[in-house]
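Sample intake sheet
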Amino acid sequence: MKILTKNIKRMEIEEYVRERLKDAFFGGISITSTPIGTNITIYSMRPGLVIGTRGKVIKALQKELEEKFGLENLQIAVSEIEVPELNPYVMAQRIAQAISSGVRWRRVAFWALRRIMDAGARGAEITISGKLTSARARSEKFFAGIMPKSGEFAKLFVKTGVAHVQLATGIYGVKVRIYPPDAPLAEEVKIEELKEGLKVVK
């Protein structure tokens, strides 16, 4: 029960930070709890917007999180995203912004898929939902490479980002799933050399 409560709280914090920093191309957070407090690292394409002039934005955010979620001795660090194309949050926002500016959803989906794969991803899947071609809402998927759907590989390595965009025809939802370059493949076999001989590690 404690683990479930902790995960729900983490999701609530991430959702709050994402909405608060949507103009900074939010790329996710990592939360670490220690005996003396909580450490949060915010990943962003525009760290300057997260920090603000003389740290004004990040100080206000720290106070808000402490009061809203009861976090004690909170420390916030900001890290710049090195490869935006491998961050699903950033790519989902890029797709949403392109659609909002008038670019056709199919065109931007193929563009994003190509950028993700060119950056070295082992697999990518983009889902765009909404009133795409008619008054009835539906979803369309675009994918390339390998994308585990279940099991440990999907749970541990697949990264997911979601964004929404309001259009005259309604709300479009964008979901990006990325299987990163360093993720293992099911068919890969590693050989470890031991003193007794060779051991096969799947």
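Comment: DSSP finds six helices and nine strands in the chain. The domain at 84-179 is CATH 3.30.1140.32 (Ribosomal protein S3 C-terminal domain).
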